């Protein structure tokens, strides 16, 4: 057929090619990169000791340029030269400009609120800038405090090899050098993987075992990706330190190994001499600074979201739409429910963006579509869970187009009213989810709302109860309202609770639609991003339910092989 690849090269960039390539439902090829952050010569904000730094990464929304927190590293005590262990894993799109901001703070208390800590400066760059630097290693000055030298930051990007194995390892050591004047050493291990350019990136620290020269560390689990990026022969450097309270840990020695060597398990090959190069250079009779022995090595293959999908788990998608009066009269262009004959309104766009992706995981493509906050014909009673298709016994619509049709039909027949109650539709889906907890089905509820919620306490209770069920909730906020209440339900910063009971898992993902409105009118890409953001947390939420319940994926059915027709050949 000679199908042309839908590309950006020449001609008309957004023309449909043969086969009508659909930007929304095809998966945009993304590669994942892992960002490692180190700093040198940070500002010292503590009087009696060194700063206790943390790095907070922000990404910038394309629409309104608002900075959103992406994640935080761990806090490292007493150092101005931190090498953070916790990485940021990001999707890298060659064709998108991803603006990044790294903020550094000196942490003074347990509070997650950054304004309670001392600001140490920041660095701005793009993801492309990091990836495009030599060796994908960007070094830049930290700025943001006038008249002060704030030090430098080094950000390294590494493309992740998609290796799903994890390793459970345990080490012990013998006859380590004594470093403490009074008592014995307090040893811990630091693991580094080597990079393409010969530098090293920290990937694990063990706990400290106090006052011994023969420590046995606890077994720890690390992904093969973090340990060696899936390259079994890549050097792994292990350093042994003696812990000191003031952060000036004493170097005992080091050794190198590789995943391939470690995978031989406990054997004579996995007893390593700990060498301190300085001592070795100085002392003729130096043998070593002790030995480290691998006690056990177990490979565990992490199951992925797609393993469950392959094994037949169905994702059931339910839609709930806000029909309250605060949306405005649907016949007026200012209304969020305005029925414009030429383009979708915000509700329609959000439904389509999310629905078109989710429907690929639902074999029968039948979606229950509900509305809330309207007065229904014939008697004008207010309902907080009514079927958009007018059939309460069978609220299912066929495909996302069926949902859209039912939505438009409802707008013509119901009267927008109020109040805005979420709990009834959440409980509606929870009833179904409670009846299939064996991992064969998972439920996703999409609520599209203008965001002014009336039943906050009941909604929180419903979410806390639903967090024990195989379900996730996506909330898309449309319109100009303040969405503080929605952010609270999202539970990313503070886990949601009701009457002293906390949600078992984080199951709510909230996004404001306005962050995704593309000024240039290219709705396709902005909606692809909306869908990507709201669906991003679903696989992890799904896996967290399966893990907690100990549910393994069913084996994938064998691939279909057509029967072989034996051709009788004439001799």
TrEMBL record:
Keywords linked to the UniProt accession: Calcium, Metal-binding, Phosphoprotein, Repeat
CDD domains in the cross-refs: C2A_Copine (cd04048), C2B_Copine (cd04047), vWA_copine_like (cd01459)
Gene3D superfamilies assigned to the protein according to its UniProt record, in alphabetical order: C2 domain (2.60.40.150)
InterPro entries per UniProt: C2_dom, C2_domain_sf, C2B_Copine, Copine, Copine_C, VWF_A, vWFA_dom_sf
GO process terms (BP): cellular response to calcium ion
C2 domain: residues covered: 9-140, 149-272
Domain VWFA: 316-517
Domain of life: Eukaryota
MF terms in GO: calcium-dependent phospholipid binding; metal ion binding
GO cellular component, one term: plasma membrane
A Pfam family of this chain: C2
Family, as annotated: Belongs to the copine family.
Free-text function comment from the UniProt entry: Probable calcium-dependent phospholipid-binding protein that may play a role in calcium-mediated intracellular processes.
Protein's name in the database: Copine-8
Taxonomic source organism: Tricholaema leucomelas
């Amino acid at each position: 057929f000679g199908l042309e690849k839908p590309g950006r090269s020449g001609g008309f960039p957004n023309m449909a090619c043969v086969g009508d390539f659909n930007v929304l439902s095809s998966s945009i090829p993304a590669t994942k990169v892992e960002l490692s952050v180190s700093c040198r010569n940070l500002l010292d904000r503590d009087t009696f000791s060194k700063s206790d730094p943390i790095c907070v990464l922000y990404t910038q929304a394309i629409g309104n340029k608002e900075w959103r927190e992406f994640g935080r590293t761990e806090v490292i005590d007493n150092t101005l030269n931190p090498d953070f262990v916790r990485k940021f894993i990001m999707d890298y799109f060659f064709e998108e400009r991803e603006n990044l901001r790294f903020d550094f703070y000196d942490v003074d208390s347990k509070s997650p609120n950054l304004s309670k800590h001392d600001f140490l400066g920041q660095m701005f760059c793009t993801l492309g800038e990091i990836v495009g630097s030599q060796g994908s290693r960007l070094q830049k000055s930290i700025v943001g405090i006038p008249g002060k030298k704030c030090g430098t930051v080094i950000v390294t990007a590494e493309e992740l090899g998609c290796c799903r194995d994890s390793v459970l390892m345990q080490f012990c050591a013998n006859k380590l050098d004594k470093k403490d004047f009074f008592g014995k050493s307090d040893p811990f291990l630091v693991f580094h993987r080597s990079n393409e350019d010969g530098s090293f990136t920290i990937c694990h620290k063990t706990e400290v075992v106090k006052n011994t020269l023969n420590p046995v560390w606890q077994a720890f689990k690390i992904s093969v990706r973090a340990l060696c990026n899936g390259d079994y022969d890549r050097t792994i450097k292990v350093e042994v330190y003696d812990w000191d309270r003031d952060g000036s840990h004493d170097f005992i020695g080091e050794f190198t190994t590789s995943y391939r060597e470690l995978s031989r398990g406990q054997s004579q090959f996995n007893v390593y001499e700990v060498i301190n190069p300085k001592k070795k250079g100085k002392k003729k009779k130096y043998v070593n600074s002790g030995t480290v022995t691998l006690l056990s090595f177990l490979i565990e293959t992490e199951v992925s979201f797609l393993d469950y999908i392959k094994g037949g788990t169905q994702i059931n998608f339910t839609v709930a739409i806000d029909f309250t009066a605060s949306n405005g009269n649907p016949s007026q262009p200012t209304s969020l429910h305005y029925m414009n004959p030429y383009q979708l309104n915000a509700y329609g766009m959000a439904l389509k963006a999310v629905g078109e992706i989710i429907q690929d995981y639902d074999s029968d493509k039948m979606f229950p579509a509900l509305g809330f906050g309207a007065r229904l014909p014939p008697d004008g009673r207010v309902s907080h869970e009514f079927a958009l298709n007018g059939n309460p016994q069978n609220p299912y619509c066929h495909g996302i187009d069926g949902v859209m049709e039912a939505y438009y039909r409802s707008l013509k027949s119901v009267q927008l009213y109020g109040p805005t109650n979420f709990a009834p539709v959440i409980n509606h889906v929870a009833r179904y989810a409670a009846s299939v907890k064996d991992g064969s089905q998972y439920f996703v509820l999409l609520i599209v709302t203008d965001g002014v919620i009336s039943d906050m306490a009941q909604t929180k209770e419903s979410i806390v109860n639903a967090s024990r069920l195989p379900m996730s909730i996506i909330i898309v906020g449309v319109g100009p309202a303040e969405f503080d209440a929605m952010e609270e339900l999202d539970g990313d910063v503070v886990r949601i609770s009701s009457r002293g009971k906390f949600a078992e898992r984080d199951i709510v993902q909230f996004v404001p639609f306005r962050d995704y409105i593309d000024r240039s009118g290219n709705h396709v890409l902005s909606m692809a991003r909306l869908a990507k953001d709201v669906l991003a947390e679903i696989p992890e939420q799904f896996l967290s339910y399966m893990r907690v319940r100990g549910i393994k994926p069913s084996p994938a059915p064998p691939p279909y092989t057509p029967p072989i027709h034996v051709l009788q050949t004439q001799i």
